[in-house]
Write a structure and sequence with these properties.
This protein has about 170 residues and is mostly helical. The chain has five helices and no strands.
Length: about 170
């Protein structure tokens, strides 16, 4: 690990804590959605798979924070978890919950992608090359999930429409 100035370290650690908070938010969103999913097994399977990746991403960020004798921010973790629960609760009352969750998930994955790209750029800028591999692994997982969601928006929408038209429960 190359030594950074206090300012550089503060910037990098803030970025790592922010990313960890995002992963906490993602974990809560996925858990709430999985609790309610009924008619979209392909979505549930993908969410379960990404939940495991999300937990691994949190562990990678914990590893990086520990390398700097730092930890997560309890306040950020609580706030991000709360926001995730409120968002999914807001979608739960909608007739098109699955669509709202799909759109939100795609947006959120892209937010996480931007976060990891920024962290990789910080690591390069500050000479923290040991962090880049872990961050790139998480970035690739987020990009894969975003691609899957994007590739399946039309299919989820068609399934939702078919269920609604046939009079079945389609929201989740």
């Amino acid at each position: 690990m190359i030594t950074m100035s206090p300012e550089a370290q503060d910037i990098f650690l803030t970025g790592l804590r922010n990313a960890h908070g995002l992963e906490t938010q993602a974990e809560q969103m996925i858990n709430r959605q999985l609790e309610r999913l009924q008619n979209y097994p392909q979505v549930a399977q993908q969410l379960r798979s990404h939940l495991a990746e999300t937990q691994q991403q949190q562990q990678r960020l914990d590893t990086l924070l520990a390398q700097y004798s730092s930890s997560t921010s309890s306040i950020k973790e609580a706030a991000m978890g709360f926001m995730a629960n409120m968002q999914t609760l807001g979608h739960a009352i909608a007739d098109d919950e699955i669509l709202k969750n799909t759109f939100a998930n795609l947006a959120f994955e892209n937010f996480e992608i931007a976060s990891y790209k920024s962290l990789i750029s910080m690591a390069e800028t500050f000479g923290q090359t040991q962090a880049i591999g872990l961050l790139q692994q998480s970035l690739q997982e987020e990009e894969r999930m975003a691609r899957w969601i994007s590739d399946n928006v039309a299919e989820v929408t068609k399934q939702y429409c078919a269920l609604r038209v046939s009079g079945e429960k389609a929201d989740r």
